[in-house]
Design goal:
The protein has 388 residues and is an alpha/beta fold. It has a single domain (8-383), classed as Luciferase-like domain (TIM Barrel, Alpha-Beta Barrel). Helix content is 39%, strand content 19%. The chain contains 12 helices and 17 strands. The strands form 4 sheets. An 8-stranded parallel beta barrel has the order 1-4-5-6-9-10-11-15, surrounded by 7 helices. Helix 6 links the parallel strand 9 (178-180) and strand 10. It is globular and about 70 Å long. The structure holds flavin mononucleotide. Residues 54-56, 81, 110, 112-115, 181-184, 187, 199-201, 231, 272-275, 305, 333 line the site of flavin mononucleotide. Flavin mononucleotide binds at residues 54-56, 81, 110, 112-115, 181-184, 187, 199-201, 231, 272-275, 305, 333. InterPro entries: Alkanesulphonate_mOase_FMN-dep, Luciferase-like_dom, Luciferase-like_sf, SsuD_RutA_monooxygenase.
Length: 388
Amino acid sequence: MSSKQPLDFLWFIPTPGDGSYLGSNEQNRPADHRYFREIATAADRLGYSGVLIPTSIACEEPFLVAAALAPFTEKLKFLVAVRPGTASPAYYARIAATLDRISNGRLLLNIVVGGSAQELAGDGIFLAHDERYDHADEFFQVFNKLLETGEANLDGKYIKAIDAKLGYPPVQSPRPPLYFGGSSDAGIDFSAGLADKYLTWGEPPAQVAEKVAKVRKAAADKGKDVSFGIRLHFIVRETDEEAWEAADSLISKLSDETIAQAQENFTKNSDSVGQSRMAALHGGRRDKLEVSPNLWAGIGLVRSGAGTALVGSPKTVAARLKEYQDIGIDTVIASGYPHLEEAYRVSELLFPELGITGAVPSARPSFNQPQVFGGGGHGGNLRVVAGS
Ligand SMILES: Cc1cc2nc3c(=O)[nH]c(=O)nc-3n(C[C@H](O)[C@H](O)[C@H](O)COP(=O)(O)O)c2cc1C
């Protein structure tokens, strides 16, 4: 697999809230749309190709969030979570087509069936783990057909759609791309032949390699090509030492009781194979958090799902990313706490190492004279570098 193409780098809109210290209310930032707008406009300018917008009872509604952000951004794509069963496939097809039209073709869809029977019951979904994928399979037969052709019919076990119609097609043809993240055999089987991009949470490279091989084979058996993405947090600083200090600081106000409570909650309320693989990395212990070189599982002590971060200097982190790229990963969905400041850090420190163009000023910075930032003041805040 070639590593020559720069990684496609997306950022994250923290609709469950944001902050500087996990497990603490100090310097926290509750969900706030003006803040999301700041993050989205920053990500758009800083060279990220898109943002992931999650779904759960702890999040704002992702299609509405994307629709609110689209007019304030230019190139940014929106990877929006679709949870089959929370609405009919025909209704989801209408909102997906409308959002693709509002954003002029910037919609990506993330299929998430959900990993908590308790949370799904609140949404009126009472299916066992594997059956959720059988239901999702019928859901996407109707959803895709509507987006691709404007019409669909299905008399399925779970989904019935009689002469379903879609009035307005999406901008993207045949439809917005489908992403999928689920680690169970049922999930991988479901996604093969359907998903355009398979996503994994940030497990160590050897585990990701195993999954990639399994997913690639499942897709090939159904005659489909699939590409791969990874969901990771980033703690990048100028030196490795500073980055590890920042990682320690992030959990410096996190109590053992909060960790125990969170871990118990995940065990009790989750039947997600992906989640149990992530929890097994650290076992709820704060003394064994570097689960593979520079891969730190501290976030997973209290956050479900994406619980690992790459920690280090730009060169260190770029080398670790190259390992994933060599396995076949071409897309990174990144985040960091707090999301506005860390979007800048990742772009300014890491993107140059990865060959990602990053923030390109829309106006010329000078009349072709080399410049340095000089802090401002009388006579102009940009000075010509002597001798360069
Ligand atoms: C990158 C990524 C993003 C995800 N986003 C969400 C989300 O927004 N909401 C959600 O309920 N589950 C989300 N999931 C969880 C999975 O979609 C899936 O529902 C869960 O892991 C159960 O599947 P499994 O048992 O097959 O692993 C995400 C997973 C991945 C890998």
